[in-house]
Write a structure and sequence with these properties.
The protein has 185 residues and is an alpha+beta fold. The protein has 5 helices and 6 strands, in the order H-E-E-H-E-E-H-E-E-H-H.
Length: 185
């Protein structure tokens, strides 16, 4: 492996970690109706555990209401059960045609616990980023033993640190934005 491949591999791993983190942030409820909070809900579809998005259309009617329109009316009750079972703190209302979920405003205590959760996820993602950096630096040490010039190794170490700092900054920015979104009443 050469230096560029090493850096690209590390960058790719860091980008994957950041993308995963951003996806997780979308699922955290911030008091507004957001269809992504139902992304992990699995519905019993004729004996198979299936993602809600595969059996129904999920959208928002307004800032406080999520609307679920199943492809088949027979799926209304299984969808309702799956949402209750997911334990999201949401209560679905079935009107015979579609399911509506009123998203209640968050309590101050719940907001603080969500902020802690967001910060914890951010720290976990930073650990993954730092592990990617460590692995890349280990790879550079191997390259150095195999005779790669010391100047090239030093330059690569600088690049690796700069890339790491950039990703850490992106995580901090995402955490800060989500925290602001959660705390905004």
């Amino acid at each position: 492996m050469d230096i560029m491949k090493c850096i690209e591999s590390m960058k790719s791993g860091m980008q994957n970690a950041l993308s995963h983190f951003e996806t997780d942030l979308m699922r955290i409820r911030a008091g507004k109706a957001n269809p992504h909070i139902l992304d992990n809900v699995m519905v019993d579809y004729y004996g198979n555990s299936t993602a809600l998005s595969q059996v129904a259309s999920v959208g928002t009617a307004d800032a406080r209401t999520i609307v679920i329109q199943p492809w088949e009316k027979a799926m209304l009750v299984p969808i309702e059960k799956a949402i209750l079972k997911a334990n999201l703190g949401l209560t679905p209302t079935n009107n015979g045609d579609m399911i509506r979920i009123s998203v209640p405003p968050l309590t101050e205590e719940r907001r603080k616990s969500l902020v802690k959760e967001v910060k914890s996820e951010g720290e976990n993602t930073k650990v993954v980023i730092r592990n990617q950096r460590r692995d890349a630096l280990e790879e550079l040490k191997k390259l150095k033993k195999n005779g790669v010039a010391e100047d090239a190794i030093k330059d690569a170490e600088g690049k690796i640190q700069k890339i790491t700092d950039d990703f850490i900054a992106k995580i901090d920015k995402a955490v800060e934005a989500k925290e602001k979104e959660i705390l905004t009443v």
